[in-house]
Write a structure and sequence with these properties.
CATH topology of the largest domain: TIM Barrel
Distance between the termini: 30 Å
Number of domains: 2
Largest sheet: 10 strands, mixed
CATH architecture of the largest domain: Alpha-Beta Barrel
CATH class of the largest domain: Alpha Beta
Oligomer: single chain
Strand content: 15-25%
Strand order of the largest sheet: 3-4-5-6-9-10-11-12-13-14
Number of strands: 14
Structural class: alpha/beta
């Protein structure tokens, strides 16, 4: 059996690994050791599992593959942001970003190589879709980005002990089009036999796929949800988000109402301001009307121009007026400043320019 036909061991549950050891006349407790190496000790190769004998490591090598996302490139912004390029086993590249803010660090990670949705303002959307990332490849991004936090930020020189403040699934790809792998990666990041990170520190952002919003609600997520809205009428959203032509805002509103009825949880609306497109007071009124349907908070995002998109950032005066209007409607509004613009690491700019 060649390497392409072997099962990726990080897709295997502990019970499956235990059965494997029993079938090969090895002690089943070895499965716990392997699982700890995979998710708690964050190893990236069977040879690193040094508590196992060489013969057992060879047995694993002969019967499983170990696909990883390996840190290949880093680019550092003047504002402290770091963009990381990860090489996958099949040669593809994805990007993640470490974002500093007041002594806190957020890891922005990717869920797909490329994206199928083709949003007009997004560099990733110009790439097209290549494939979904595995739970392990998503997990690896978090591990490597955490290792880039300066040692004095954690009070220890051990990268494994450097705690990220937040993890956001806002990098390349649409997380809900890779739902199973994304939720499995969150399980590994939050479980006690994984990284033990609080799910309250994790946010998953989606363009708004109605059936997946409903499924998420039924699964009772403990992580936070953010809707990438960017226009509050179908007439405008259709122009920038082709997916909206097939699933208009009415469907999304119904799914979000269902989400709130099942979970009772406030979610976040993400809204990028584009100059002279969605930044008028009329647009603000439309957004306020959309938000009357459920309890939300709003993140207004500065746009980072993408070559060929035809969009530019709203000017400061319009941005302030837009936010002031929403606040008069008793809405919770935050302005998310752009970070990492000089290295194409800001919102909407991830496009694998680090690929060789």
């Amino acid at each position: 059996m060649n390497g392409d036909q072997l099962a990726d061991i990080r897709f295997c549950a502990p019970e499956q690994i235990g059965r494997f050891f029993r079938d090969h006349k090895e002690e089943p407790y070895r499965a716990r050791q392997v699982y700890e190496w995979l998710w708690k000790k964050r190893c990236h190769a069977f040879k690193e599992m040094t508590s196992l004998s060489k013969s057992i490591r060879q047995l694993l090598t002969d019967h499983f593959t170990f696909h990883t996302a390996n840190l290949e490139t880093t680019r550092h912004s003047a504002d402290g942001t770091v963009k990381a390029g990860f090489r996958l086993h099949d040669g593809l590249m994805v990007e993640g970003v470490l974002i500093p803010s007041g002594g806190r660090y957020t890891a922005c990670i990717s869920s797909q190589a490329g994206c199928a949705l083709g949003c007009k303002f997004c560099a990733t959307g110009q790439l097209g879709f290549m494939r979904n990332l595995t739970p392990g490849e998503i997990f690896d991004q978090v591990t490597y980005l955490a290792s880039l936090i300066p040692a004095d930020s954690s009070g220890t020189g051990n990268p494994a002990e450097k705690a990220l403040s937040n993890i956001v699934y806002m990098g390349m790809g649409e997380p809900f089009m890779n739902y199973e792998n994304v939720t499995e990666s969150i399980e590994r990041l939050t479980s006690e036999d994984g990284s033990g990170i609080s799910p309250q520190r994790i946010t998953v952002s989606s363009i708004g796929i109605p059936k997946m919003i409903r499924r998420m609600a039924e699964d009772g997520p403990k992580y936070h949800f953010a809707l990438s809205l960017h226009a509050a009428t179908d007439q405008k959203r259709n122009q920038i988000i082709p997916f909206n032509l097939h699933h208009p805002l009415g469907e999304i509103i119904d799914a979000l109402k269902y989400h709130y009825s099942r979970t009772g949880r406030r979610f976040t609306i993400e809204y990028i301001l584009f100059r002279n497109f969605n930044d008028s007071l009329t647009d603000a009124k439309d957004l306020a009307g959309f938000c009357r349907n459920f309890p939300v908070k709003i993140n207004i995002i500065e746009y980072n121009p993408v070559s060929g998109s035809g969009f530019d950032r709203s000017d400061e005066g319009k941005t302030k007026a837009f936010i002031r209007f929403l606040e008069t409607r008793n809405l919770i509004v935050n302005l998310r400043k752009s970070r990492g613009k000089d290295i194409d690491a800001a919102c909407g700019q991830l496009a694998m320019k680090t690929a060789s």
